[in-house]
């Protein structure tokens, strides 16, 4: 029997006015006031005379409608006190004062069908049925059970449902395949249970849930399985499922840190942040092929083939477009291609999104390490010129330091963008430095577009971000920063083969063929350079867990501008004794209590 949907309570007008109109138009012979003194003969005579309008007076009609509410198009929830007080009064009391909830039934759409419940998958099949618990069942009854089970296993009917990935009005049909049957005999199960599981690392034994307190290396032994989990995680991002995304991120970071190739679900179940759901996905993944290259998670493949997600991912990859904006493009505007955005929505985009769309293909090309190093050196040289650092002071305590952070520092062969931090032991040298450096690079032709130029730290005297700041967020954007588009202005003239620059070639209409790159130029005062480098060097989950650890275990607020005590709001200085930025970063990690780990051990995904 279909259940009544009461998830949408009607408004006061919906629940009262229609009932009033029905009461006025309903013939009086449909109502009768119940009494407690009627005998059987009275009831019989009343029943024969109920068709007479004279049997029910006007006041009785009103009383009956109060005692017996009209339930033809509404559902009422009545406080149990109505029964108690009616018993004490020895008569039925009006229900209206006791109504606590009113709802209106909604008929199920004709396009939807209720699928039959899927059968419970059989995980293990006994090798010898005679020794099983079915030995006490008569053979005829046992065979009948098997016959019915086989009949139910034909498959799950097609079901029509709404799109799961957005509030679209259109419907589509999705065929649900019956669950796969993993057949394992008793002897095979016993053999699996005898598999030698490696001695778990100490962080597994202690159930360490913080990714920042365990080492995670690049290219983990379970990279193929992790890559499939990352697809599901991306789908959670695109569907705005923040809780689901964090759950998968936690599981991925834990599996990434596990130093052994997983060969049994029991290994997954012992990892912090992993549960039977992840173990089940691993079993599905393992069953799809004989090698890691062949294996896949069926649920992840389904997401790969989902047309909605394909379109959302395309928009999400535009620089400056997040998941919410991508969904707005598709589900609200109805755009499906880049050309749709350009033709119909160009003026609605902010400057960052316009540049991200213009150089979409170029920004997807990875930046080799050698090119990252070249860009860093050019920025450092311009910073030196802006503050008149003599060549004799290069690489001394009187010089700037420029630290390449992000994926490069963890060891990536190719980076999506270039993140670098400039600092100087004299804080007067870093005050509003970002303005001068970006301006100099623009004049030299290296920067083609400046998208963001923040002097937040300089504006507050280069102090740590206040704990109660309205613009707190994650904290790393509170530093002075220039977000720019970079292009090497030097190239060969295709006509003459001689070296030329963007400015010289522009007069003759020659276009610079060099790829545009994304570069973040970050300025940090020396007193918190260790926090800045730490805050920009770890993978996403590593950085997220540093903030969680500082908050829950230390009652501190950590971000790349420094550390503050949440109770007092005072600055916590952990890196003061450090002479170099490397020493200062190490002091911060040790002072936080997470322990020092080189950047190459911060690959949490």
From TrEMBL:
Residues annotated as domain BRCT: 77-100
An example molecular function term from Gene Ontology annotations: DNA-directed DNA polymerase activity
UniProt feature, compositional bias: Low complexity: 111-121
UniProt KW keywords: DNA damage, DNA repair, DNA-directed DNA polymerase, Nucleotidyltransferase, Nucleus, Transferase
Gene3D superfamilies from the UniProt entry: 5' to 3' exonuclease, C-terminal subdomain (1.10.150.20), Beta Polymerase, domain 2 (3.30.460.10), DNA polymerase beta, N-terminal domain-like (1.10.150.110), DNA polymerase, thumb domain (3.30.210.10)
UniProt-listed GO biological process terms: double-strand break repair via nonhomologous end joining
Locations listed in the record: Nucleus
One annotated Gene Ontology cellular component of this protein: nucleus
Residue spans of biased composition, Polar residues class: 26-35
Cleavable signal peptide: none
Region span, Disordered: 1-61, 109-137, 150-194
PROSITE patterns, A to Z: BRCT, DNA_POLYMERASE_X
E.C. no: 2.7.7.7
A Pfam family: DNA_pol_lambd_f
Top EC class for this record: transferase
Catalyzed reactions: DNA(n) + a 2'-deoxyribonucleoside 5'-triphosphate = DNA(n+1) + diphosphate
SUPFAM superfamilies: DNA polymerase beta, N-terminal domain-like, Nucleotidyltransferase, PsbU/PolX domain-like
Entry similarity comment: Belongs to the DNA polymerase type-X family.
Entry function: DNA polymerase that functions in several pathways of DNA repair. Involved in base excision repair (BER) responsible for repair of lesions that give rise to abasic (AP) sites in DNA. Also contributes to DNA double-strand break repair by non-homologous end joining and homologous recombination. Has both template-dependent and template-independent (terminal transferase) DNA polymerase activities. Has also a 5'-deoxyribose-5-phosphate lyase (dRP lyase) activity.
Protein name: DNA polymerase
Source organism (scientific name): Phaeomoniella chlamydospora
């Amino acid at each position: 029997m279909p259940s009544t949907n009461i998830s949408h309570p009607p408004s006061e007008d919906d629940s009262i006015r229609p009932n009033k109109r029905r009461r006025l138009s309903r013939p009086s012979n449909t109502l009768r006031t119940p009494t407690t003194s009627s005998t059987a003969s009275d009831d019989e005579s009343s029943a024969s005379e109920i068709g007479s309008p004279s049997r029910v007076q006007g006041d009785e009609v009103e009383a009956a409608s109060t005692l017996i509410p009209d339930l033809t198009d509404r559902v009422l929830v009545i406080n149990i006190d109505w029964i108690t007080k009616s018993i004490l009064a020895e008569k039925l009391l009006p229900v209206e004062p006791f109504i606590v909830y009113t709802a209106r039934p909604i008929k199920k759409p004709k396009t939807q069908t209720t699928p039959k419940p899927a059968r419970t998958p059989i995980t293990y099949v006994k090798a010898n049925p005679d020794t099983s618990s079915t030995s006490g069942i008569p053979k005829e009854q046992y065979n009948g059970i098997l016959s019915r089970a086989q009949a139910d296993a034909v498959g799950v009917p097609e079901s029509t449902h709404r799109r799961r990935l957005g509030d679209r009005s259109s419907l589509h049909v999705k065929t649900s395949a019956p669950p796969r049957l993993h057949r394992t005999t008793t002897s095979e199960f016993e053999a699996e249970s005898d598999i030698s599981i490696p001695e778990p690392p100490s962080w597994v034994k202690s159930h360490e849930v913080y990714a920042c307190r365990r080492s995670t290396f690049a290219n983990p032994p379970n990279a193929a399985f992790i890559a499939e989990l990352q697809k599901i995680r991306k789908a959670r991002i695109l569907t705005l499922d923040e809780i689901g995304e964090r759950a998968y991120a936690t599981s991925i970071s834990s599996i990434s840190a596990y130093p052994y190739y997983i060969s049994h679900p029991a290994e997954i179940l012992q990892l912090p942040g992993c549960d039977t759901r992840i173990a089940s996905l691993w079993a599905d993944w393992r069953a799809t092929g004989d090698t890691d290259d062949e294996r896949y998670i069926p649920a992840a493949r389904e997401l790969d083939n989902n047309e909605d997600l394909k379109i959302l991912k395309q928009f999400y990859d535009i620089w400056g477009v997040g998941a919410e904006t991508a969904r707005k493009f598709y589900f609200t505007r109805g755009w499906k291609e880049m050309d749709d955005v350009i033709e119909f929505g160009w003026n609605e985009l902010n400057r960052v999104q316009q540049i991200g769309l213009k150089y979409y293909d170029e920004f997807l090309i990875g930046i080799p390490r050698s090119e990252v190093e070249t860009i860093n050196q050019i920025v450092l040289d311009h910073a030196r010129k802006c503050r008149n650092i003599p060549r004799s002071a290069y690489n001394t305590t009187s010089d700037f330091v420029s630290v390449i952070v992000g994926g490069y520092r963890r060891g990536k062969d190719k980076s999506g963008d270039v993140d670098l931090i400039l600092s100087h032991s004299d804080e007067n040298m870093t005050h509003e430095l970002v303005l001068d450096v970006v301006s100099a690079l623009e004049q030299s032709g290296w920067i083609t577009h400046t998208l963001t130029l923040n002097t937040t730290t300089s504006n507050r005297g280069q102090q740590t971000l206040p704990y109660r700041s309205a613009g707190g967020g994650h904290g790393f954007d509170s530093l002075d920063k220039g977000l720019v588009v970079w292009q090497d202005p030097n190239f060969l003239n295709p006509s003459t083969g001689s070296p030329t620059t963007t400015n010289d070639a522009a007069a003759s209409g020659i276009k610079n063929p060099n790829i545009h790159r994304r570069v973040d130029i970050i300025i940090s005062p020396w007193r918190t350079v260790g926090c800045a480098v730490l805050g920009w060097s770890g993978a996403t989950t590593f950085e997220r867990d540093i903030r969680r650890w500082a908050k829950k275990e230390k009652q501190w607020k950590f971000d790349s501008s420094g550390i503050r005590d949440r109770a007092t709001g005072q600055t916590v200085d952990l890196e003061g004794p450090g002479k170099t930025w490397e020493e200062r970063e190490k002091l911060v990690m040790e002072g936080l209590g997470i322990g020092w780990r080189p950047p190459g051990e911060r690959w949490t995904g």
